[in-house]
Amino acid sequence: MIAAARGPGEGVNETFQRRNSAFLAPCVCAAGEGRPIIHPMQGKRILLGVTGGIAAYKSADLVRRLRERGAEVQVVMTAAAREFVGPLTFQALSGRPVRAELWDAAAEAAMGHIELARWAELVLVAPASADFLARLSGGHADDLLATLCLATQAPIAVAPAMNRIMWANAATVANVATLRQRGVQVLGPAEGEQACGEVGEGRMLEPLEIADRVDLLLPRSGPLQGRRVLITAGPTRERIDPVRFISNRSSGKMGFAVAQAAREAGAEVVLVAGPVSVPTPSGVRRVDVESADSMLAAVLREVEGADIFISTAAVADYRPANPHGQKIKKTANTLDLNMERTPDVLATVAARARRPFVVGFAAETESVEQNARAKLLKKNLDMIAANEVGDNKVFECEDNHLIVLWRNARRDLGQGSKLSLARELVRLIAESYASSLGGARDSVQAQAQA
Ligand code: CTP
């Protein structure tokens, strides 16, 4: 427990304690017909980071909102946050001593910072100041909160709060873009009147709205809970010389949507992505690669222990056989590039002795279903999702049309947004995967009985 320093906001403590004593115990809401509803946040472990800003006082209410949904909340304050609100307020509302110092021997003895980073199922930083966003994007470990963010594998969400000009500053814009790219969820900020008297974007979202958004970020119990799903997405780039490459029009959106849907279904998701500019879905671990070779290497590193492999990447089929060490000069009238085949990532995984459940994608411009079925058989897949690609179709589009094929079945998922199709596809994959386990179990039992 940190020293009970007196500070502004300390008086809030008693008022909150009296008014909200009901929230200090986990809440089970009453439902119709006398049945209790267990809230999805019930029992979830949330580490709430509070950084320096006038909005820190709202975080006291946020603790209350999270606890009324049944979450366990551990507050970690930065030194600047303690200038705005006293730790006792948070201690009373969260029911746990506030952590603040990296070098607090007593607190470390109770739960070391690495244990604390492991304890969290979600790290939420609210308010997140401009300075904290900069430190987070720079990977700093110069105080307890920044260190925990670096050491945790839990999803991280931030609710920025700052003056509108600070929010619009190019440095903050770049930091936020980096964080989004890494899968940090940025909640808000909202627009409106600011503490400094200006009006604009930069206000922290209201605690109730943050709590609602956090609800959606937490790992759910779903059909893929406890399963590890490995996904490839995006194009690959094959080098011609130091300044040129061969690639394709894949945006990675379909693969990222599949990653989000798998995560929503409760899976632990690893996403091996070629060069794309799509934000990483919350809670997904992303590994960036460039070429077909590096995609294969990353997949082979991650595939051990994967239950399901979904190959949505548009891997280049050929690459320059002899990439030039220096920029090719414009001397001849024509240029011949000698190309060679790249490895087939999907076929390599499907050919492994101990292989996961393997799902491919087929990008076709003609005879879509026929070509996709041929790939299903040739690459020895469990399932394939076929889509028609081409001008104004799929690439760089928000919508898609998927037909899912198994060895002896098909399902037309129709036209829809990539995310809605991804959710439907993941549902089918989960069902098929579960029955493949059932089949394996049945055959082991049959052998045992024989
Ligand atoms: N794939 C792969 N590695 C490659 C090529 C393709 O992993 N080098 C995977 C894709 O991710 C997809 C499936 O194989 O899941 C089919 O990809 P597609 O581009 O439709 O077909 P290809 O196998 O490349 O064959 P073709 O280009 O002749 O249609």
Describe the structure.
- With 450 residues, this protein is α/β, with parallel strands linked by helices.
- The protein has 15 helices and 21 strands.
- The protein has two domains: 10-217, Rossmann fold; 228-324 and 338-436, 3-Layer(aba) Sandwich (Rossmann fold).
- The protein has helices spanning 10-19, 56-68, 87-94, 105-110, 113-119, 130-137, 144-151, 164-168, 170-181, 207-217, 253-264, 292-302, 345-350, 368-378, 418-449, and strands spanning 29-30, 36-37, 45-50, 72-77, 122-128, 156-160, 185-186, 190-193, 199-203, 228-233, 238-241, 244-246, 268-273, 285-288, 308-311, 318-320, 339-341, 357-364, 383-388, 399-406, 409-417.
- An eight-stranded mixed β-sheet has the order 14-13-10-15-18-19-20-21, with helices on both faces. It has a five-stranded parallel β-sheet with strand order 4-3-5-6-7, sandwiched between helices.
- Strand 18, helix 14 (368-378) and strand 19 form a beta-alpha-beta unit.
- The N and C termini lie far apart (63 Å).
- It binds cytidine-5'-triphosphate (CTP).
- Residues 232, 292, 311, 313, 315, 317, 342, 344-346, 360-363, 375 line the site of cytidine-5'-triphosphate.
- The site of cytidine-5'-triphosphate has 15 residues, from helix 13 and strand 18.
Topology of this protein?
Layout: H1 10-19, E1 29-30, E2 36-37, E3 45-50, H2 56-68, E4 72-77, H3 87-94, H4 105-110, H5 113-119, E5 122-128, H6 130-137, H7 144-151, E6 156-160, H8 164-168, H9 170-181, E7 185-186, E8 190-193, E9 199-203, H10 207-217, E10 228-233, E11 238-241, E12 244-246, H11 253-264, E13 268-273, E14 285-288, H12 292-302, E15 308-311, E16 318-320, E17 339-341, H13 345-350, E18 357-364, H14 368-378, E19 383-388, E20 399-406, E21 409-417, H15 418-449
The structure holds cytidine-5'-triphosphate.
